[in-house]
Amino acid sequence: MSKQVIPLYFTLFLFVLLFVFFDAQIDNEFIMIGRLQRLFALVLVSMTIAYSTLVFQTISGNKILSPSLMGYEHLFVLLQVVLLLLFGGNSVLLQSKVWSFLLSTTVMVIYSFVLYFCLFRKPNKQIYYILLIGLILGIFFNTSTQFLQMTIDPDEFAYVQSAMFSSLGRISIHTLLLAFLLMVLVFLYLFRYFKYLDILSLGREYALGLGVDYDKVVQQQLFGISILVAISTALIGPITFVGIFVSGITYRISSTAKHRSNVSLAIAISFILLICAQFIIEHILNYKHSLSVLINLLGGSYFVFLILKLLRK
Amino acid sequence: MIEINSLHKKYGQRTILKDINLKIPKGKLVSLIGPNGAGKSTLLSIIARLEKIDQGSVKLDGQELSHYALSSFSTKLSFLKQQNSLDLKLKVAELIAFGRFPYSKGQLNPRDIEIVNEAMERMNLSHLCDAFIDEISGGERQRVFLAMIIAQDTDYILLDEPLNNLDMKHAVEIMQIATRLVREFNKTVIMVVHDINFAANYSDYMIGMKAGEIVFMDKTDSIMGEGILRSLFDIDFRIIKDGSSLLCNYYKI
């Protein structure tokens, strides 16, 4: 662990304290449990964002890509619209947080399985090919959503609109537990291959030369990533785009290419970003903005700052 | 020994390798020469199992390539690519340590560290050990990758144009190291070389390739003739012998 990381973890700890105890009535159980739930959700989401983005970038050999380009999130929104049209706003599938979480996760996981299985049957298909297909399908989902929106009752449209933006209002104890359980399973599955991640970044030829079955490891990682993205999207809505900022900041701060330290660093950074944004939403903006909008604003300004700094050199 | 029998390779409709038959002996320095597009790199890639065989067979020490498990293959044969650039914050020592991955699976033991340090010293890289690989020169990076291959400690070492981007001093150094690997450690080094003079002065055997076919394969001494080189490269050569070394002049004839 390098020295720059210590203040980072200190900041993180401060923000957690601030988030939980700022302006709080400790004896009010309802408020405290709510805050702890949201805190836990942010931890889960930071872990999925950090791992999926960093490993996705390693596999694609490109540091400005994000798994959200594969169309999961557009599919998620489309799914909400279709459900609304088919079953109406009062359906249990939309009203029950658990059912909606399970259904969304399942659909997104099936989507990625279909995507990968079709493509991996043909060997030598590059990751970029899959990415392009995902991107095009994402656009297709998005335009389908827009098309279907026209037919929606304005009252019910509000529901769709809320699905388009990530928000912690969607979580409940049950969905959190489900998400936590699923994530533990995925990480247990991925953990065995963790030692291969550093080798993957050398590219296919060297990985094979060093005795690592590159194609197999990449497939397993992509499956894992798709489930992680599905979980976090189903939990709080489209958010994984934030990963690009997170990875950008991570690679800037980090002084190593080792995944072990970079992933934990990225988890800390995305957690700080998320908790900051959520804190601002809760206490300053009075719940008027969605999490992703604010984070993209924060991350975007950081990027502008970076570019300005680079230009001055 | 590497035995190649009636090997064919196509990319789509284009034939890259046509009926290749070769026996490459163990413990020798072998150069693959020939014009661009002759199929030299493809042949190396096939031996390194990076490309699939369309037809024919390649045997390594009597055993079919595809019968080796990936992990044991990586302790038997290593391959250095032509282009080596990585956009990673890797230190020189860390990259070289990857060469031990087939043995250590990521957990370096003291013996691994010793081998990594030896490889680093042999390639004159010890002073750079904490430098990042994207901050060193192209020639230094080439040597770092070669050091990684040396740390991998395999019987067979395939090098695809290892002299690319190197100045004369470092090119000579690389060839000397390759010779030492063969003489002292009984490795088999097979390399694609574009500089005919390096190939002629250092290699035990030479394989000439043109348009996907083997034109010749023999001991270097029996090949160095003006006629043979002219038929391979379609330009005129004049061979100048000078005691222990020889020079193939094609610059201005």
Q: Please, could you describe this protein's structure?
A:
- The complex is a heterodimer of chains A (about 325) and B (about 250).
- By secondary structure, chain A is mostly helical.
- Chain A is about 75% helix and about 0% strand.
- Chain A has helices at about 5-20, 30-60, 70-85, 90-95, 95-120, 125-150, 155-165, 175-190, 195-200, 205-210, 215-235, 245-255, 260-285, 290-310.
- The radius of gyration of chain A is 20 Å and the shape is globular.
- Chain B is about 35% helix and about 30% strand.
- Chain B is built from ten helices and twelve strands.
- Chain B has helices spanning about 40-45, 70-75, 90-100, 100-105, 110-120, 140-150, 170-185, 195-200, 220-225, 225-235; strands at about 1-10, 15-25, 30-35, 55-60, 65, 75-80, 155-160, 190, 205-210, 215-220, 240, 245-250.
- In chain B, the strands form three sheets. A six-stranded mixed sheet of chain B has the order 6-7-8-3-9-10, sandwiched between helices.
- In chain B, strand 4 and strand 5 (about 65) form a beta hairpin.
- In chain B, helix 3 (about 90-100) runs parallel beside helix 6 (about 140-150) and helix 5 (about 110-120) packs across helix 6 (about 140-150).
- Chains A and B meet through helix 10 of A and helix 2 of B.
As residue ranges, the low-confidence spans of chain A are none
- What overall form of chain A do the CA principal axes indicate? globular
What is the H-and-E element order of chain B? EEEHEEHEHHHHEHEHEEHHEE
Distance between the termini of chain B: 39 Å
SS summary, helix count of chain A? 14
Uncertain spans of chain B: none
Helix content of chain A: over 70%
Strand order of the largest sheet of chain B: 6-7-8-3-9-10
Euclidean distance between termini CA atoms of chain A: 28 Å
Strand content of chain A: under 5%
Average pLDDT number of chain A: 84
Strand tally of chain A: 0
* Proportion of helical residues of chain B: 25-40%
Largest sheet of chain A: none
Multimeric organization: heterodimer
Radius of gyration of chain A: 20 Å
- Overall, the morphology of chain B is globular
Spell out the helices and strands of chain A N to C. HHHHHHHHHHHHHH
